[in-house]
Design a protein that fits this description.
Helix content: 55-70%
Order of helices and strands: HHHHHEE
Largest sheet: 2 strands, parallel
Structural class: mainly alpha
Number of strands: 2
Distance between the termini: 20 Å
Number of helices: 5
CATH class: Mainly Alpha
Strand content: 5-15%
CATH architecture: Orthogonal Bundle
Shape: elongated
CATH topology: 434 Repressor (Amino-terminal Domain)
Length: 98
Amino acid sequence: MSDFLKKYSAIRGNDHVESLQLEGQIAAQIKSKRQKLKISQQELADLANIPKSTIGRIEAGLTSPKVETLLKISKALGTPFIIDGTPGNEDKNMTLKT
């Protein structure tokens, strides 16, 4: 953990920092899969039937998507949405640590 995260964790708590890191990992997985499929944010938004701004905000880490939104995105990307309690799961599926 970086010095910044250690200091921030001392202020906000480990759970908050871990939650932010998890959201960042999910956002990165969405962006990576979208780019691998060579589709734009607009195309993903159209496939998932959600606004393009939502995709942009999720990928930029500016919003925490609802489970319903994640399910729509995973379906549009053809990627299973799996809730997996295993830390560091680096497979091709979107994972959510519980």
